[in-house]
Design brief:
This protein is an alpha/beta fold and about 325 residues long. Strand 1 and strand 2 form a beta hairpin. The longest helix is centred in the C-terminal third of the chain and has 25 residues.
Length: about 325
Amino acid sequence: MTARHSGTPVIGLDLGGTKIAAALVAPDGTVLARHTVPTPATEGAEAVLDALAVAARAVRVHGTTAIGVAAAGVIDPGTGTVTSATDTLSGWAGTALAAGLATRTGLPVACDNDVRAAATTELDGPDDDATLLYAAVGTGVGGAVAAAGRMLHGAAGIAGHLGHLPSPEADGLPCTCGATGHLEAVAAGPAITAHSVRLGGRPADRLQTVAERAARGDPHAAAAITLGARAAGRALGGLANALGPHRVVVAGGVPRIGALYWDALCAAFAAELMPPLRGLRPRPPRGGADAAVLGAAALPRTLPLHHPHTTGAPS
C-alpha cells in the first residue's frame, strides 16, 4: 500500500532538459526551500540521476520523508521507469528512475511525467470529481487527462501524450518520436519556428523572434503561428468531444506568445465542439511557475513509492 506522507515535508523535483528545480514542500503546499542545478542532458542517465540526488540533498532537512519527481519522458509510476523518451536527455529511455534515485538518497521515491504532475495542481483536491483535459505546448507538446478527479496513466504510463495525435496540418512532417504527421511536428515552439522558414520567412533562432515578426506584420511568421495554433485547437476540440471534460487548460511557453496564437487556438477548438459543449473554452493554467515542483511533491501521497535497494517493486 502507498504511504501518504500527509504530515511531513516532501521534496519535489522537476526534471527538465536544461535544469532541475528542487523544492522542499510543507504539507500545506508552502515552499520552504529551493535549489536549481543544471541538467547534464548529454552525459547519460546515471549523470542525470546523480544530479537529481544533488538537487534533493540541497533542500533536504531532518524529517523529510519522501521525494516526488516530475520528469520528462513517458514515465510509468508503477514500475518507476522511463518507458520512452526523446533524445532531449541522452540514454533516458529505460532508466530505473525511482529505484536509482531512492538508492542515491535513501528516501522513497514516487515519479510521474512532468506534465501530469503539473496538471494535478489544476484539480481542487481529492474530492474534485471533474474530468480535466490539460495540454502543455512548449518545446514539445505534452498533456494529461484526469477522469473523476484522478490522473489517467494508461499502459506504460503513456496516457496524455497529446503531441503524438495524428494532425492533418503536420502531414509528412517528422516527429521527435520517429513517426510522421503528429501534432508536435507542427504545433510545438521549434516546429512553428521551422515552419515559418518553410513558408519563406527569414531564419529564426527561437519562437519569440517569430512572434515579434508576426506582430510587425510578417505574413510568414503569422501564418506559421496560426497554423500551429489551429492544429492544437482542432486536436483539443476533438478530444473534448471524446472525453467530455469539465475544464480544458492550455499551458506552456507557446500560448504565452500573444493573442494571435491564443485566439486562433480557441477559435479552432470551438469550431470542433458538439452542441452540448459549445460553452466550453480553453483557459490558461492557474498553477504558476511552481506547478511542476508542487505537483511533484504531491506524488508520494497518491502514487506507488519505490524504496532504496529495491528493483521497482512499489509499496
